[in-house]
Design brief:
- The protein has a single domain, classed as Divalent-metal-dependent TIM barrel enzymes (TIM Barrel), CATH 3.20.20.
- By secondary structure, it is of the alpha/beta class.
- The protein is 40% helix and 20% strand.
Length: 389
């Protein structure tokens, strides 16, 4: 979906396909048919954007087979889909029964992360619509926090510098400008936007910036204005933003609140949980740890890294951090010039929701994703952006 900003530029809105993970090229093609096109039809649009997730094997198949890449481009066009952004964070296995800490491997100290991201950049340059010259890729925020020392930090910096040089060369070769954004996430080396400033300043290249995920921002209790102002002052570009909402518990000491939170404690994904206290941020690596190990004080609100559907706030006594998303979006695209032009709804946890809230079948999932995109569309038009055909 495309929108005209008051400054005349185009802002793109997509939804991320890691919600229906596919490890192979055949799986990706089936995903377009079974999920993405039905979402488009429910929105009544001739074209929508998708933030494509290409696992290692699917990406490698496309890089090594130009005919397959042309076939994917044709299939996207045929189904009314366009790609201006990729989710390059998960490498493989995102559909496994247990993902947890595996999602952070390989990290930016491993040469395979550089190789995979380079592949993604080349693919994105070939998949961009004919009238679009800029693409974006989100990636993991260097590594999980341990072990990460100065030697590993320098290895990661070198890899990102090499990536920037490759993106420069790709631009010269294709005329397509691809940028990559580190996506701060709780528990990682770069947990917050503030944590991103030093390593990104060290890389010192505008091809490498930040992806602001509004669920992660909220989970770490970051203030959107403070975060975005600091990035602007440091000259760190917001490459893209993922529109997502975290789980919020105002009174975690109450038995009914803890019971409600426990329903979201599931074995597949890591749900880092945070509490903001007078002495600072307190952390638990997973929601179950917060609930059972007294890892967090229960005298102040908790937020958990669980991407809840944007349009469907959890039942009381829980809420979502949708207001943080709205505030962030206002600051990203509500000004005279947008800070980013690539927005991606990323609720990958539909099948990890408590059983009563999970979609029953493809049709309900498509309806839910379409409703999220409709909400995001309305937020954008309320900010003065005009939806384009």
């Amino acid at each position: 979906m495309r929108f005209r900003h008051p400054d005349g530029s185009t802002v793109h809105l997509a939804y991320c396909t890691n919600v229906h993970p596919a490890e192979t090229l055949e799986g990706v093609l089936a995903q377009l048919r079974d999920h993405c096109e039905p979402v488009r039809k429910r929105l009544g649009r001739d074209r929508i954007g998708i933030g494509l997730w290409l696992a290692k094997d699917a990406a490698r198949a496309l890089v090594t087979d130009p005919a397959a890449l042309r076939g994917l481009r044709t299939e996207l066009d045929r189904r009314g889909l366009e790609v201006v952004t990729l989710n390059g964070f998960p490498y493989e296995g995102f559909g496994a029964e247990e993902v947890k800490y595996r999602v952070y491997k390989p990290d930016w100290t491993d040469p395979e992360r550089l190789s995979h991201t380079t592949d993604l950049a080349r693919l994105l340059a070939a998949l961009l619509p004919d009238d679009v010259t800029e693409g974006t890729i989100s990636t993991l925020p260097l590594a999980w926090r341990t072990p990460f020392d100065t030697v590993r930090a320098e290895t990661a910096r070198t890899a990102l510098t090499t990536l920037a040089q490759r993106l420069d060369a790709l631009d010269e070769l294709t005329g397509r400008s691809i940028r990559v954004g580190l996506e701060p996430e709780p528990g990682c080396t770069v947990e917050t936007t503030a944590d991103a400033i030093v390593p990104l300043t060290a890389v010192d290249h505008d091809r490498i910036g930040i992806c602001v995920d509004t669920c992660h921002l909220a989970t770490s209790f970051e203030d959107p204005k403070t975060a975005l102002d600091a990035l602007t002052e440091a000259g760190i570009p917001v490459v893209k933003s993922q529109l997502s909402a975290a789980l919020h518990a105002e009174h975690p000491h109450l038995p009914d609140v803890r019971e409600a939170l426990a329903a979201f404690d599931e074995p597949r994904f890591l749900h880092q949980t945070r509490a903001l206290t007078s002495s600072g941020l307190r952390a638990a690596d997973d929601l179950g740890e917060a609930l059972t190990d007294d890892a967090l004080p229960d005298t102040s609100p908790w937020r958990a890294h669980f991407h809840v559907p944007l349009h469907a706030e959890p039942a009381a006594p829980l809420t979502s951090t949708l207001p943080v998303l709205q505030d962030t979006l206002t600051r990203l695209v509500g000004g005279t010039t947008p800070l980013t032009r690539h927005l991606e709804v990323e609720t990958y946890t539909w099948q990890a929701l408590p059983p009563a809230l999970r979609p029953r079948g493809r049709s309900q999932l498509a309806e839910g994703i379409a409703a999220e995109l409709a909400l995001a569309r309305d937020l954008l038009t309320d900010l003065g952006l005009k939806e384009l055909p």
